[in-house]
Amino acid sequence: MARSLFGTDGVRGQANAEPMTAETAMRIGMAAGLVFNRGGHRHRVVIGKDTRLSGYMIEQALTSGFLSVGVDVLLLGPLPTPAVGFLTRSMRADVGVMISASHNPYQDNGIKLFGPDGFKLSDTVEHSIEQLVNSPARIQLAAPSAIGRAKRLDDAEGRYIEAVKGSARRRLDLSGLKIVVDCANGAAYKVAPTVLWELGAEVVAIGVSPDGFNINAKCGSTHPQPLQDQVVARGADLGIALDGDADRLVMVCEKGRVIDGDQLMGTIAERWRRDGRLSGGGVVATVMSNLGLERFVGVHGLRLVRTQVGDRYVLERMRADGFNLGGEQSGHIIMTDHATTGDGLMAALQALSALIKSRKPASEAFRAFDPVPQLLKNVRVKDASAALNATSVVAAIAAAEKRLGKSGRILVRKSGTEPLIRVMAEGDDSELVRKVVDQIVEAIPKQAA
């Protein structure tokens, strides 16, 4: 199924350049409104956004598109991506939209769509929308009397805050914990500190002064150093870093060390296993998750099921096979008992619950396993497929796999978003890991670069 508009996570690009122009956004609104026309009732869409300057433009363009095909619009304002999934289902909307480019800088923006069940759209539905966007003559506008109405949902923040707090079992009490939270100057800059404070924590909030330009700028989950510094300087018990749309997180222990998604998944999985709450007999992760996580869950009688990179693929496998916990090393933690997509805040509360029950400091409670040495190198190429199929590369991969044997793992793949080949290896011997990665990198044909 050839696609040019939708990528692995909706539509994304530089703001005010195709496909992230007002005109294309308006046509996406028209097309999505028609695709989700499900009968004679008044149709409804909820639209949320992060804090990028271009969000105003895209929000208004999408609104115009939906209204023009007879869909009523509820505007949520700045809210995390998982809040849009939740409110789409809660408000019984026909479709939900999040305007965000996640962890990217402010120059970029994106459009993510949710179905009435609160889950991101399938490839088939996205293809139907894309066909209409590319064929505007097929779009049937509403009669003057049937044009949609738009209004702000004033209590959207409060609804989501209560949902997040409700996801924590047995009345989670954070009293006595000092927590630094970095909201990346993004979508959670109001709701994240509020949730933690209402649950009793002493909260130090950073990255909560968005100006349209500073989202993800040297802050948040992709730039945790400011959080690390503040946790140590403030004598905090731990830190929480979200990304621009708050669908993923990393945490920082009291010593200022970063706790990644693999450690969080391991910690939550073991806690849920003890509590009898883990479904599917294990965890779903991607091919990038550390071998240490796989060994850890195996010791506890669980299995680690791997998918290709991308939270949508993790979620697909979870829903297909009955798992309720999955995620990515980068910090997307998906808990289908509580949310329809990765939710950084809900995942943080589950991790905090495990921390409190352990009666250990964060540096010990979140050290579920010792990570196996892992090394990733990116090689820029003109034709990734040709480079991967080169005889020299195939031979180098085979030789590297033989050298590592059962003590490690090799992954060589092309990037889904850039002209890159990603070469990753992990194993118990860090020097051997470095050698096999370099061996494969050097084998990539010079003419491919």
Major sheet: order of its strands?
1-5-4-2-3-6
Tell me the total number of β-strands.
Answer: 18
Question: What is the alpha-carbon Rg in Å?
Answer: 22 Å
Biggest β-sheet description: 6 strands, mixed
Low-confidence stretches: none
Counted up, domains total: 4
With helices defined by DSSP (H or I, 4 residues minimum), what is the helix count?
A: 15
Helical coverage, percent range: 25-40%
> Which CATH class of the largest domain?
Alpha Beta
Given helix and strand content, the structural type is alpha/beta
Determine the mean pLDDT. Answer: 94
The CATH superfamily of the largest domain bears the name: Alpha-D-Glucose-1,6-Bisphosphate, subunit A, domain 3
CATH third-level topology of the largest domain: Alpha-D-Glucose-1,6-Bisphosphate, Chain A, domain 3
Strand content: 15-25%
> Which architecture of the largest domain does the CATH hierarchy give at level 2?
3-Layer(aba) Sandwich
- The separation of the N and C termini measures 29 Å
What overall form do the CA principal axes indicate?
globular
Write the layout of secondary structure elements.
Layout lengths: L10 E4 L7 H14 L7 E7 L5 H14 L2 E8 L2 H10 L4 E5 L8 E7 L8 H11 L16 E3 L3 H11 L11 E5 L8 H8 L3 E5 L18 H10 L3 E5 L6 E5 L4 E2 L1 H15 L6 E5 L4 H9 L3 E5 L3 H11 L4 E2 L5 E2 L9 H15 L3 H4 L8 E7 L3 H6 L1 H14 L3 E7 L5 E8 L2 H14 L6
Parallel strand pairs: 2-3, 2-4, 3-6, 7-8, 7-9, 12-13
Antiparallel strand pairs: 1-5, 4-5, 9-10, 10-11, 14-15, 16-18, 17-18
Helix pairs in contact: 1-2, 1-4, 5-6, 8-11, 14-15
